[in-house]
Amino acid sequence: MKMKKLFTSAIAIVAIAFATNVYAQSNKMVGGAAMYPTKDIVDNAVNSKDHTTLVAAVKAAGLVDVLKGAGPFTVLAPTNAAFAKLPAGTVTSLLKPEMKDMLTKVLTYHVVAGKMGSKEIAKAIKAGGGKAELATVQGGKLWAWMEGKNLMIKDEKGGTATVTIADVFQKNGVIHVIDTVLMPN
User: Fold this and answer.
1) Burial bucket for residue 157 (CB in 10 Å: 0-12, 13-18, 19+)
2) Pairing mode of beta strands 160-170, 173-178
3) How does pLDDT run across 95-133, given as a tens digit for each residue?
4) Domain assignment of residue 59, yes or no
């Protein structure tokens, strides 16, 4: 009887360890929160403590329903620290109702139509001879390339961002966390 209990306990521990490992592999952590591939971009982003400014901006621009839509979308998601790099007062100004058009332009510049994980971006970089041109839903262009193991993104004004967390897959696309806000022309 003691051997049966020991065996049952061992199976339970292995099952828990397996389940925990599967959980860890299927859900990336962003801003201290698990990102679930069964949730949409907005439902995941609202849980990230590193993306509260981005979520507030998406709400102010009226883009919640769009980013909850079927997509698929590739979102280059600036962190709160990325927004903090902007000149003083920029974020406050952009969140004002009268700046909604400009805010929408900046936010949609961070979105590429389609689901482009790092493997797809790497293929585009290779096909482009070391640099890939990405068309944003705003109508602008971004350029992607590798610097060592870092995926880099350049905007139309010459600013660059580093992807700090890649391949956060959602049910309606993928998020790549970036460390700098990208600016359209």
Assistant:
1) exposed
2) antiparallel
3) 999 999 999 999 999 999 999 999 999 999 999 999 999
4) yes
